Amino acid sequence: MQTRAAQARALLATLEPSVKLRTYFVEDNATIRENLIGTLEELASVQAVGVAETEDAGKEWLTTHAGQWDLAIVDLFLRQGNGLGVLAACRARRPGQKIVVLSNYATPDVRMRCTQLGGDAVFDKSNEIDALVAYCVLHGSRSADPGTGPVLP
CA 53, CA 128: separation in Å to the nearest integer? Predict the structure, then answer.
């Protein structure tokens, strides 16, 4: 039986042309951030366009570089501030831009609050990395195909 990561790799291999998903990371733990970037660059054709460790830095970059990112991956607990502030600051983003939360605290209440603030998806760091990879693969394929557009559920 294939793992979700293997399924994501197989799906990615069928998609041409390969378009890199310009992704911005708001994560204060350097080890987690670097491992996540490496995994997503390998499995989901993600290109890291920048990182922030604080709410203020994440909000500033994402709002002033509106045309330079396709996906933002945001942790909830940051060195300064929190990911909820980043979500709220990005509510008026361009169509097709997605912002997702990756957290160890993906409870039903947290998921609901993230959705209320404009988050497109919430993934649990401990057991939903494969689902995040699949989400990135799907978002990248939609961005590459003008016929389907970059809109995801």
Answer: 22
Burial of 83 (0-12, 13-18, 19+ CB in 10 A): buried
Has this prediction a pTM greater than 0.85?
A: no
User: Around Cβ 81, how many Cβ atoms within 10 Å?
Assistant: 17
CATH of the domain at 66: 3.40.50.2300
User: Is 53 domain-assigned?
Assistant: yes
Q: Can you give the residue range of the structural domain that contains 118?
A: 4-11+19-141
What are the mean pLDDT values of the chain's consecutive 10-residue runs (153 residues total)?
64 61 98 97 95 99 96 98 98 95 97 98 97 94 52 41
Q: What does the CA dihedral 139, 143, 144, 149 come to, rounded to 10 degrees?
A: 110
Contact predicate 99/87, CB 8 Å = yes
Structure letter (DSSP) for residue 82: B
User: Residue 147: its pLDDT value, please?
Assistant: 42
